[in-house]
Design a protein that fits this description.
5-stranded mixed β-sheet; single chain; about 25% strand; D-Maltodextrin-Binding Protein, domain 2; about 250 residues
């Protein structure tokens, strides 16, 4: 009887859904990738991708919000199991976390008030003396520090939302951010109607990495491999594309 009970217990542990929920860390201030709806729930592209991956792995997801600079510390100290927050895969971050294959890849753009910056190509000398905003702790901040800080006044903000608010309020001349966030999350809004993308796409793999990946704790090979297999599956069966089209009709983010 004892042996039968032990065997039954082992079978129950192996059933889908018996494992602890996967705690998925994201910022929640990066529309349309992730934001809060009117009821305070996280919604967006990253949320749907997280749910699709967890469904494929037959694991329950628990979405948890952290400030951007707290995402990796939360992963490292065990408050989260993975980060799915449009985090670029870079060599510097790979020293602290392990990444899956990319699940998205988007360019960066400068944004400015319409007619304020008449430059086809944005270079440090062409915008010398301008006030340039960026979200602190991002790859965009490191890019600007390395390439532009000598020539411009660099202003940092805790979140992208605060940076856009500063741009709309006249505190900035330009803002560097993800193209999708600016194009979908700012320009179509009442606050962003007098603004535009300026210059061409900002491409710098040495700063922005090779796309956005899902971060897991260093050495958590089992979870990373599960996520990679689930990612391959949702790409192959069209789930990823359906989620993408739900939010991005004009271009692809993969």
């Amino acid at each position: 009887m004892l042996r039968m009970l032990l065997c039954l217990f082992a079978v129950l542990l192996a059933q889908p859904g018996t494992a602890a929920p996967l705690r998925v860390a994201m910022e929640g201030q990066f529309p349309p990738f992730e934001e809060l709806d009117a009821q305070g729930n996280l919604v967006g592209f990253n949320v749907d991708i997280a749910n699709a991956l967890c469904q494929r792995m037959q694991r329950e997801c628990e979405l948890k919000r952290f400030a951007w600079e707290e995402l990796i510390p939360a992963l490292e100290d065990g408050r989260a199991d993975l980060i799915l927050a449009s985090m670029s895969i870079t060599a510097a971050r790979a020293e602290r976390v392990d990444f899956t294959a990319r699940y998205a890849q988007t360019p960066a753009f400068f944004f400015a008030r319409k007619g304020h910056i008449n430059q086809m190509l944005i270079t440090p000398r062409r915008i010398a003396g301008k006030r340039v905003g960026v979200q602190q702790g991002t790859t965009y901040e490191r890019f600007l520090e390395a390439r532009f800080a000598e020539h411009v006044q660099l202003l940092r903000y805790p979140s992208a939302a605060q940076a856009y608010q500063a741009l709309a309020g006249g505190e900035l001349d330009l803002l560097l951010d993800d193209a999708v966030s600016g194009y979908f999350g700012f320009l179509p809004t009442e606050q962003g109607r007098d603004f535009e993308q300026v210059g061409g796409p900002v491409v710098a793999p040495q700063f922005f990495g090779q796309g956005q990946g899902i971060a897991v704790r260093k050495g958590d090979h089992a979870l990373r491999e599960q996520l990679d297999r689930a990612l391959v599956a949702i790409l192959a069966d069209g789930t990823h594309k359906r989620i993408e089209k739900r939010y991005f009709k004009q271009f692809s983010v993969y």
